């Protein structure tokens, strides 16, 4: 890992357009070689966009590979470039949706889906506001230590282990009314999940956004990080009204519906290489 970290440290010295050019080359190569992951992406697109032609799906997944490689190459910028450089790279829109609530002493959950700019967006976000973040330890100790250290680079991120209870998250949120940065849009298996439509397919979905919002009496503010050329945009959306309700399944479907709208805006920038439909309802055949 030391060699990988050294390469990332050197890459962060490059201009962003050159990192992008390198990612285009390596991403195109990864698309050609990573047959199984390419297959996963194409299946996801077929399920979510059945009217899209095969040629268009292939083009989009090739672009997605390039974005994902670029995300990996940009870790050096996130970890070691100056805070000023990150501020200049990321345009922030509508931060007042969060700061106004915090000024009133209200707690906030940031619904932050997995788009390819989510790491750079989070490091920019943490310069403006403290955050509560759930962390899953990595198998490689060196990588685990570096990611954990990176999360703490501004010394205002309260990290909670994924093995801890909801009480730990809420307790951390109460410290300085730090918003909880929540990324519940992946398949975490059948435990504690509901099968809710994601586009037109049942997807095992964690209903934690609704449940934590109710327990913490917190407002939900969606945030989307997107790549715009060689720069980034971090957009906060208005707090959801009438959320949560007493219908957890309807609340979870509302979360997925919002995400679908954002994906349609930038379809090549979502995490399509993840097996989003791996967990199936009883009796249904597997997709992958």
UniProtKB/TrEMBL annotation:
GO cellular component: plasma membrane
Name assigned to this protein: Lipid A biosynthesis acyltransferase
PANTHER family: LIPID A BIOSYNTHESIS LAUROYL ACYLTRANSFERASE, LIPID A BIOSYNTHESIS LAUROYLTRANSFERASE
Domain of life: Bacteria
Extent of the signal sequence: none
An example Gene Ontology molecular-function term: acyltransferase activity
InterPro entries: LipA_acyltrans
Subcellular localization, as worded in the UniProt entry: Cell inner membrane
Keyword field: Acyltransferase, Cell inner membrane, Cell membrane, Membrane, Transferase
GO BP terms in the entry: glycolipid biosynthetic process
Entries under Pfam families matching the protein: Lip_A_acyltrans (PF03279)
CDD domains: LPLAT_LABLAT-like
Organism of origin: Pseudogulbenkiania ferrooxidans 2002
